Amino acid sequence: MSSQNKINKAKLIDGPVGPLLIKLTVPMIWGLFAIMTFNLVDTIFIGQLGTTHLAAISFTFPVIMVVTNLAIGLGIGTSSAVARAVGEHDLTKIQNLSIGALILSLAVVGTCLILGLLTVDPLFRLIGANEEQMVLIKDYINVWYGGMIFLVVPMVGNYIIRATGDMLWPGIIMIISSLLNLILDPILIFGMFGFPRMEIKGAAVATVIAWVFTFFASSFILYFREKFITLRLPRFSTLVDAWKSIAHVAFPAAGTHMIVPVGAGIIMSMVALFGEEAVAAFGAASRVEMFAFIIFLAMSAITGPFVGQNMGAGRFDRILHGLRLSYRFCLYFGLFEAVLLALFAGPIMGLFDDNPVVIHYGQMFLYIIPVAYFAHGIIFIASGVFNGSGHPVPAVIISVARMFVLFIPTAFILKNIYGLTGIFAAYTITTITVGGIAAAWSYRFILKRA
């Protein structure tokens, strides 16, 4: 009965929309901020080892993003299904969905591990890594692959917790995990307190240890507090039903999210043509970009449960009001970030590398690409609307059109005319265009169902 009461309290269909969205978003901001420091801290410490090390870790970003975004897709699909079950007050259904999601996550991890280990050499050489960088990449990525289970499973588990409207505990878990990584990184990278100097491999080991904490913490909450997972496995037919319900949203959502790292890999291959310094700058500036997206990603994360529960209750007026508030915020805050990053581009890049060429390329990135950050936020939230409603196809179309129909052709054209600046300009122009389309489409999508 206590679990049932918690589900009832977590419903998102009552109360003023603006304050509710803020209440849900703030814990997510802190949690995502903590997670982003994983990558930023790794990059800063590894950058102290030299430009070659920084370039090597930069080459791993697209691959890491593919796995991470696959996990996010599974989490979104699970959250969408669980949120609707929460509205039905069906604890048994929630348990079946939760157990099914975690089993599916294990299967995905196993597949990614095998594929990843088999493709290390051809994949990173295809992106543009040289022999010296390949040695460093293998030191990092092989450990990272080995610890994937401790990334994917708790990530999906945290999405299950969020589906009830609880954004606090997932945030706390991510903050503690990030602090562990912050403490362990310098110890293992540089060899402190009697530990051997592991350099780039040490960053991967520190990350995996921190993930282990999230694995046990989220499992503890799901089992003991929420009682969403049990030691009793559902019947296979029940698991199949759960997988179908999750996959209906999860795999399109995963595809949508993985388009971004695939595009990042393509961008990286184009940037690599301009030298190691350009790759290092792109990798470092991309880490800064991740921090700039924190609030937008937090808003996107709470959009799915908010839309799912209110759509189930027929409260379309609340969804429309939430969209108006969210898109307006994206516009104002995104433009504020663009100005801020342009003003401090030099000092920011100096944190990663003292190479003047790296700093120059990084400044170029931070002058041009942040102009479109407001549109990124709109795209994130629009995708949350479609996924949360159980209709993921529009989000897929938006992502495919943005990357493959608009960006890549534009980037190739502008690269030949303006060089690296042209690549960055193409990304900004196409993102703003698609952001406007996403805003209009998501608003009309809800309006037609009101």
Descriptive overview:
- With 450 residues, the chain is mainly α.
- The chain has one domain.
- It contains 18 helices and no strands.
- The chain has helices spanning 2-9, 17-47, 51-87, 91-118, 120-127, 131-146, 149-162, 168-190, 200-225, 236-271, 276-292, 294-312, 316-343, 345-350, 356-368, 373-388, 393-418, 420-449.
- α2 runs antiparallel to α12 and α10 packs parallel to α17 (393-418).
- The longest helix is centred in the first third of the chain and has 37 residues, at 51-87.
- Residues 1-10 have low confidence and may be disordered.
Give a nutshell description of this structure.
This protein is mainly α. It has helices spanning 2-9, 17-47, 51-87, 91-118, 120-127, 131-146, 149-162, 168-190, 200-225, 236-271, 276-292, 294-312, 316-343, 345-350, 356-368, 373-388, 393-418, 420-449.
Query: Sheet with the most strands?
Result: none
- Rounded radius of gyration (Å): 21 Å
Low-confidence stretches: 1-10
Please provide the ordered H/E string of secondary-structure elements: HHHHHHHHHHHHHHHHHH
Beta-strand percentage? under 5%
Shape: globular
What is the residue-averaged pLDDT? 84
Considering DSSP H and I runs of 4 or more, what fraction of the residues is helical? over 70%
| N-to-C CA distance | 34 Å
SSE topology sketch:
Elements: H1 2-9, H2 17-47, H3 51-87, H4 91-118, H5 120-127, H6 131-146, H7 149-162, H8 168-190, H9 200-225, H10 236-271, H11 276-292, H12 294-312, H13 316-343, H14 345-350, H15 356-368, H16 373-388, H17 393-418, H18 420-449
Helix pairs in contact: 2-8, 2-11, 2-12, 3-4, 3-6, 3-7, 3-10, 3-11, 3-12, 4-7, 4-10, 5-6, 6-9, 7-9, 8-9, 10-17, 11-15, 12-13, 12-16, 13-16, 13-18, 15-18, 16-17, 16-18, 17-18
